[in-house]
Write a structure and sequence with these properties.
185 residues, 7-stranded parallel beta sheet, 6 helices
Length: 185
């Protein structure tokens, strides 16, 4: 019997950001997904960190599922050479399809869209809808202000301290791979 293919949902920026370390980590993470024999599930864009992750994963042999809403086909230049290409009606459907087709979530640096995606899966975990691992890949300390905000939310009584246990902050790609290996078995 063939082992189950594990799928990693990657949420990240449709822009490269200013720090070259972000693109470097995106490429390294894509290559690591392939090296582990996992499948990439991502936003189907061929731009920014999304494109970096996908090109690296696919170049190293990983299957990739890209999910993109109709209205972003032009802006994110939908990467059609993926193993599976899904076009959704809207952003909500995109997130749901990506999440439902993955075993874990990794959030690389990104903007408002990446924050929206992170908070949605965090909220779903907080209210008991899933137990999938959620990682913040904290390249060059990028997510430290977010982590401080989440601690502030807990300190101010707007969330139970258990919320902070629903995700893991990892400093680099090797730590992300180690965390995912442990969580996925």
């Amino acid at each position: 019997m063939q082992p189950t293919l594990r799928s990693i949902c990657v949420f990240c920026g449709a822009r490269p950001g200013r720090d070259p370390a972000h693109a470097q980590a995106a490429r390294a993470f894509g290559a690591a997904i392939a090296a582990e024999g996992w499948r990439l599930v991502y936003g189907a864009g061929d731009v920014g960190l999304m494109g970096e992750v996908a090109r690296a994963a696919m170049a190293a042999g990983a299957p990739a599922m890209g999910v993109i809403p109709t209205h972003l086909m032009g802006a994110e230049r939908g990467k059609r050479d993926v193993t599976q290409f899904v076009i959704t009606e809207d952003m909500h459907e995109r997130k749901k399809v990506m999440f439902m087709n993955s075993d874990a979530v990794a959030v690389l640096p990104g903007g408002a869209g990446s924050l929206d995606e992170f908070f949605e899966v965090l909220t779903w975990a907080q209210i008991g809808l899933h137990r999938k691992p959620i990682l913040l890949l904290d390249v060059a300390g990028y997510w430290q202000p977010l982590v401080a905000l989440l601690r502030h939310i807990v300190d101010q009584g707007f969330a139970d301290p258990s919320m902070l246990t629903l995700f893991q902050v990892v400093p680099d790609v090797p730590a992300a791979v180690t965390a995912l290996r442990g969580a996925l078995g």
